[in-house]
């Protein structure tokens, strides 16, 4: 899967997740999509500089997990001014990233 397809799929997954959980404001949803595009592309470009093992070992390696944690922090910081700071937003960022990571993992393993 190419970089932009992965970023688009991540943005779509996480934006739909926030929409389903009650975020209806167009501005908020556009922000969620843009933040996800930005963080996903940044993470994948950064990981592309590393020589990670192929297959599952590379997909669940320490650099990938550490990168996902940084992405969650960045998304929380970028979304909080619009969506409101607090544990709920942090939890939603964690769950949304787990969903999109899981979907990406499934696609990577079966394609």
Structure, described:
- Helices cover 82% and strands 0% of the residues.
- The chain has 111 residues and is mostly helical.
- It has one domain (3-110).
- Helix 1 crosses helix 5 (87-110).
- The mean pLDDT is 90.
Summarize the structure.
The chain has 111 residues and is mainly α. It has helices at residues 3-20, 26-48, 56-59, 62-83, 87-110.
Q: What is the domain tally? A: 1
Give start-end ranges of low-pLDDT stretches: none
Q: Taking all residues together, what is the mean pLDDT?
A: 90
Which structural category fits the helices and strands? mainly alpha
H/E topology pattern: HHHHH
Give the helix/strand layout.
Blueprint: H1 3-20, H2 26-48, H3 56-59, H4 62-83, H5 87-110
Helix pairs in contact: 1-2, 1-5, 2-4, 4-5
């Amino acid at each position: 899967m190419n970089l932009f397809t992965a970023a688009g799929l991540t943005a779509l997954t996480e934006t739909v997740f926030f929409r389903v959980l009650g975020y209806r404001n167009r501005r908020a949803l556009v922000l969620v999509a843009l933040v996800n595009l930005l963080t996903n592309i940044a993470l994948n470009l950064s990981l592309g500089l590393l020589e990670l093992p192929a297959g599952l070992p590379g997909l669940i390696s320490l650099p990938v997990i550490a990168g996902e944690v940084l992405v969650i922090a960045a998304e929380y910081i970028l979304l909080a001014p619009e969506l409101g700071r607090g544990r709920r937003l942090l939890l939603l960022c964690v769950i949304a990233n787990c969903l999109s990571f899981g979907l990406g993992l499934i696609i990577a393993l079966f394609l």
